[in-house]
Amino acid sequence: MNKTVVITGASSGLGAELAKEAVSAGYRVVLIARRLDRLEQIKKELGESDNVRIFQADVTDRAALKSIFHDIGRVDVLINNAGVGYFAWAHEVKPEETAEMINVNVTGLIQCTELVIPQMIERKNGHIINIASMAGKLATPKSAVYAATKHAVLGFTNSIRMELGRSNVYVTAINPGPIATPFFEKADPEGTYLKKASKLMLNPAEVARKTVAVIGRPVREVNIPKWMAAGSVIHTLFPGTVERLARKAFFQK
After folding, report:
1. What is the overall mean pLDDT for the chain?
2. Residue bearing the bigger pLDDT, 55 or 184
3. DSSP codes, 8-55
4. From 135, 161, 196, 223, which residue has the greatest number of CB atoms within 10 Å?
5. Interatomic CA distance for residues 102 and 145, integer angstroms
6. What is the 3-state secondary structure (H, E, C) of 188-252?
7. Considering 27, 86, 146, 170, which one is annotated as catalytic?
8. How many CB atoms lie under 10 A from the CB of residue 220?
9. Distance, CA of 95 to CA of 106 (rounded, Å)
C-alpha cells in the first residue's frame, strides 16, 4: 500500500485507535501530538515498526508544524484529529478555555491542512479527513463554543472539498457522537454527562475503523451513529419542534 497517513492528536483516545487501525491496514503512519511519552508508548505498542514515525508538536504552533511537515515529505492522507472541549454555560466558559478550543479545533486543523494542500494539488492525489462532530450539525446547551468550532470545521471542510475536487483530492468529514475517550476528562471533569449519556458513548475503535475504511474513497462525510445524523436533518427542517420535544435530552450535560 505504501501510503503515508499523518494523524494529529495521536497520543490517546481516538487518535491512538486511528494509529492502530491504519497500521493494521498496512499504511505507514506519522503521529503528531504534544505528549512525547504517550507517542513513544503508542509506537512501542505498534511494534516500533519502521512504518511508524512520531513527532512532538502542538497543532497551534505553525512554525513547528511547518518544520515537521517538511521532514515528513509526502503526505498521502491527513487525518486532523486533534481536538479539545469544555462543557459549560456560555457565560461561564473561561477565556483561556475558549481560546484553546478555537486554537486547537479550528486554527490547528486549518494550519495542518494548508501545509499539505500544495503537494496534493501538485500530485493531483491525496485525502484530507477532518474529525468534526455531531456538535457541528446540532448544537446543544453547555457546548456553545465547542459546537461553534465544529461548525467552523464543517464549513472549512465543505469549502475545500469543492476547491480540491478539481485536483482529484478527496475531503471527508467524520461526524461522531460522543466517544468514550479521555476527551471527557477536560470536557466533563465531574462525570455528569458521562453518567447520563453512557448508553450513547461510541467505541473509539469502531469510529477509527470506519474512518480508516474511507481512505482513498470519495466519501463526503461519515455520520456515527446514523440516527443522530437523522436527528440533525429533522432539526434543520423543524428546529422549534425538535428543541421543544428534545429539551430534556439536550440538557443532559
Report:
1. 89
2. 55
3. ESTTSHHHHHHHHHHHHTT-EEEEEES-HHHHHHHHHHTT--TTEEEE
4. 135
5. 8
6. CCCCHHHHHCHHHCECHHHHHHHHHCCCCCCCCEEEECHHHHHHHHHHHHCHHHHHHHCHHHHCC
7. 146
8. 12
9. 16
- The band of 21, judged by pLDDT with boundaries at 50, 70 and 90, is very high
- Its pTM stands at 0.89
The number of beta carbons lying within 10 Å of the beta carbon of residue 30 is 26
Number of folded domains that form the chain? 1
Residue 23's Cβ-side half-sphere holds a number of Cα atoms within 13 Å equal to 23
Residue 191 Rama label (left phi>0; alpha psi -120 to 50; beta): left
Nearest to 5 by CA among 65, 58, 62, 81: 81
Name the grid cell of 232: 440533525
Place of cell 463554543: 145
Nearest to 8 by CA among 63, 54, 47: 54
Cell matching residue 134: 455531531
Cα distance between residue 176 and residue 133, in whole Å = 5
**146 catalytic, yes or no?**
yes
Q: What is the pLDDT of residues 139-197, one digit of tens each?
A: 888 899 999 999 999 999 999 999 999 999 999 999 998 887 766 666 566 666 666 66
In whole angstroms, how far apart are CA 242 and each of 87, 178, 236?
A: 22, 20, 9
Task: List the CATH number of the domain containing 222.
Answer: 3.40.50.720
